[in-house]
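dude i think i finally got it to work??
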Amino acid sequence: MGEELDNIGQKIRALRQAKQMTVRELASLAGVTPGLISQIEHGRVS
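look at this
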């Protein structure tokens, strides 16, 4: 499961960067904190 979360985080980061969005912008759209987005992108959330 940990590897799957890493892959999801990597995909989210790649898509965010492709859209030239910052972590703050994505967090605002998603209604979560920038810290949570960062944790997800780095596979630190279970």
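The mean pLDDT is 93.
im so relieved honestly
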